Amino acid sequence: MSYSFENLTVGQSESITRIVTEDDVHTFAAVTGDNNPVHLDAEYAATTSFGQPIAHGMLTAGFISAAIGTRLPGPGVIYLEQTLKFRAPVFIGAEVTTTVTVKELNERRKRAVLETVCTVEGKKVVTGEATIMLP
């Protein structure tokens, strides 16, 4: 699905859902070099306040990029800015639902501000806003 600027409306939203796997976490660590043991070492993670390994916050935030690039507005969009607030940990095996909602439209510049929210079992785990430009 792909939206042009002309068919975006304030309040419009789209969602994607993804289950975080251990392979996702290890692949993200390998690609980025973020080998923090809280993500990769169950024994170490057990000694933390989380009690088990957690997914990288930026891995979860990456689902926002996927929602914007594939759903709303979709292919061809240019990501300009993103704010993020990490509100709760995401554990391996969690089903993350990412929703992007059109908050503001700037017709002159062909830009939009999107509310971005990732939830697990209805609880917000990552929130923020994205500014995007449409071709």
From TrEMBL:
Specify whether Secreted is a keyword of the entry: no
The UniProt keyword set, sorted, is: Lyase
Q: Which GO terms describe its biological process?
A: fatty acid biosynthetic process
Instruction: Tell me the ranges covered by the MaoC-like domain, including all copies.
Output: 16-116
Recorded GO molecular functions are: (3R)-hydroxyacyl-[acyl-carrier-protein] dehydratase activity; fatty acid synthase activity
The entry's cellular-component GO terms read: fatty acid synthase complex
The answer to whether UniProt assigns keyword Repeat to this entry is: no
Cite the PANTHER family for this sequence.
HYDROXYACYL-THIOESTER DEHYDRATASE TYPE 2, MITOCHONDRIAL, HYDROXYACYL-THIOESTER DEHYDRATASE TYPE 2, MITOCHONDRIAL-RELATED
Protein name, UniProt field? MaoC family dehydratase
What organism is the protein native to?
Answer: Maribrevibacterium harenarium
